[in-house]
């Protein structure tokens, strides 16, 4: 099955076409009450029997919208369809899988799209004002262009629907939660879910028995506590600003700093403060760049700001890992993934050096290996196994899409 995976932003569309093979006996269950059933199944169940390894083509369409070269999402799809015609040598797309940032409290698994689902995604716009409306535009544009095309949405928040209330509640008056949905949601769920499955499989542990801590370290970064294969806590919160020190985001900060900045700086309003915390903070604020490769080079040549930025990010992450080790009742495994987690041996070393109290050690040679494969990097004497597991969100989305669509075709 050819699956087109789409990440639809407000002014851009990222796409990838994956060839997914499905085996019949393993497809996800389907009944006529599709959405209700689907909302209870996990990504893993949705992807059972699906292998979405091969990338046939991928691309990016930018400058969509007012003042851009491309008027709207419909026109962007025309551009994409033309490219796909050329690049796929006449082969046709069978289904479309969309990455959607926010599934609110409703969605805990991928679902097949219908009009009601699109409206639900739009209704969640107050929680993700930049992302959800853009995703809905992408969904509607596909409906218009290819009315019969099956579409599936995969939510960034869904994997964290298993958080217990003590982990997702904020200790502020209840009205903010009831009226505005202010609580911890967590993000990067597709990646945390996928990597958890891969790590358990690699170690030969049943997922239900797998307790781990997963560090997804890209430009945005989050760490998740996995107990029995499910997410029980995660560092991002109401928004992806919380938790770790990231490329351009501050991560956790004393809330009074924000009110302090607002009251002391007349030229900084809430919108500007949001921009400072999301785009001008983190590694960039301390080390002068959000690029880990550059930070490594600068630190090596004696730049103390770059070294401090790396030290702060590693220290914050190590504190989370220690906390989550307690939360999961003792992790069997620590996993590094995403751009920095997969590629920066120097950063992984800084983190593990902070974790000596847990008896975790690195195998220095294994840590230096560059590879696209899952691998062990802990030392033989390490109390806890440390893995590098390459993430692949597009693959997870393609497999979930194929799994659900195939199930519908088989049983529907
Ligand atoms: P995004 O969140 O945008 O998907 P990525 O997962 O691609 O981010 O991660 C981007 C980060 O990974 C950047 O900080 C980049 O510097 C870092 N990175 C990528 N390749 C390397 C490398 N070879 N060595 C160190 N850091 C790397």
Automatic annotation (TrEMBL):
Superkingdom in the source lineage: Bacteria
Catalytic residues as annotated in Swiss-Prot or TrEMBL: 156 (proton donor/acceptor)
EC primary class: transferase
Cofactor(s) needed for function: Mg(2+); Mn(2+)
UniProt KW Metal-binding keyword: yes
EC numbers, comma separated: 2.7.2.1
Subcellular compartments: Cytoplasm
Site feature location: Transition state stabilizer: 188, 249
GO terms for cellular component: cytoplasm
GO MF annotation terms: acetate kinase activity; ATP binding; magnesium ion binding
InterPro entries per UniProt: Ac/propionate_kinase, Aliphatic_acid_kin_short-chain, Aliphatic_acid_kinase_CS, ATPase_NBD
Binding site for Mg(2+): 7, 393
Reactions listed under catalytic activity: acetate + ATP = acetyl phosphate + ADP
Listed name of the protein: Acetate kinase
Function: Catalyzes the formation of acetyl phosphate from acetate and ATP. Can also catalyze the reverse reaction.
Pathway involvement of the protein, from the record: Metabolic intermediate biosynthesis; acetyl-CoA biosynthesis; acetyl-CoA from acetate: step 1/2
UniProt-annotated binding residues for substrate: 99
Cited HAMAP family: Acetate_kinase
């Amino acid at each position: 099955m050819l699956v087109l995976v789409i990440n639809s932003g407000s002014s851009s569309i990222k796409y990838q076409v994956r060839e997914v093979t499905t085996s019949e006996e393993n497809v996800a269950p389907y009944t006529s009450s599709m959405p209700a059933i689907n909302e209870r199944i996990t990504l893993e169940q949705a992807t059972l029997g699906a292998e979405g390894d091969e990338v046939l083509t991928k691309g990016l369409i930018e400058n969509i919208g007012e003042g851009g070269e491309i008027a709207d999402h419909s026109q962007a799809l025309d551009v994409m369809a033309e490219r796909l015609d050329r690049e796929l040598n006449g082969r046709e797309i069978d289904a479309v899988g969309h990455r959607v940032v926010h599934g609110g409290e409703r969605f805990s698994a991928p679902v097949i799209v219908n009009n009601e689902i699109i409206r639900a995604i739009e209704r969640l716009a107050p929680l993700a004002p930049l992302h959800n409306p853009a995703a809905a535009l992408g969904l509607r544009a596909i409906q218009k262009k290819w009315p019969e095309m099956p579409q599936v949405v995969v939510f960034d928040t869904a994997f964290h629907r298993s958080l217990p209330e003590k982990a997702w509640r904020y200790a502020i008056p209840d009205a903010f939660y009831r009226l505005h949905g202010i609580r911890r949601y967590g993000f990067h769920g597709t990646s945390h879910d996928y990597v958890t499955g891969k790590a358990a499989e690699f170690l030969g542990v049943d997922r239900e028995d797998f307790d781990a801590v997963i560090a997804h370290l890209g430009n945005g970064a989050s760490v998740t506590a996995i107990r029995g294969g499910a997410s029980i806590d995660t560092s991002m919160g109401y928004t992806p600003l919380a938790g770790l020190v990231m490329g351009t985001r501050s991560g956790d900060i004393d809330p009074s700093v924000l009110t302090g900045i607002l009251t002391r700086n007349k030229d900084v309003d809430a919108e500007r403060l949001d921009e400072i915390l999301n785009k001008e903070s983190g590694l960039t604020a301390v080390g002068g760049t959000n690029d880990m490769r550059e930070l490594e080079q600068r630190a090596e040549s004696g730049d103390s700001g770059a070294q401090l930025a790396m030290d702060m990010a590693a220290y914050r992450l190590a504190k989370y890992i220690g906390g989550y080790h307690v939360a999961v009742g003792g992790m069997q495994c620590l996993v590094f993934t995403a751009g920095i987690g997969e590629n920066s041996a120097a950063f992984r070393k800084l983190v593990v050096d902070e974790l000596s109290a847990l008896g975790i050690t690195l195998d220095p040679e294994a840590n230096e290996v560059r590879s696209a494969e899952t691998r062990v990097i802990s030392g033989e004497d390490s109390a806890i196994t440390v893995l590098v597991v390459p993430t692949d969100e597009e693959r997870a989305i393609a497999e979930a899409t194929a799994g659900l669509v195939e199930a519908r075709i088989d049983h529907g």
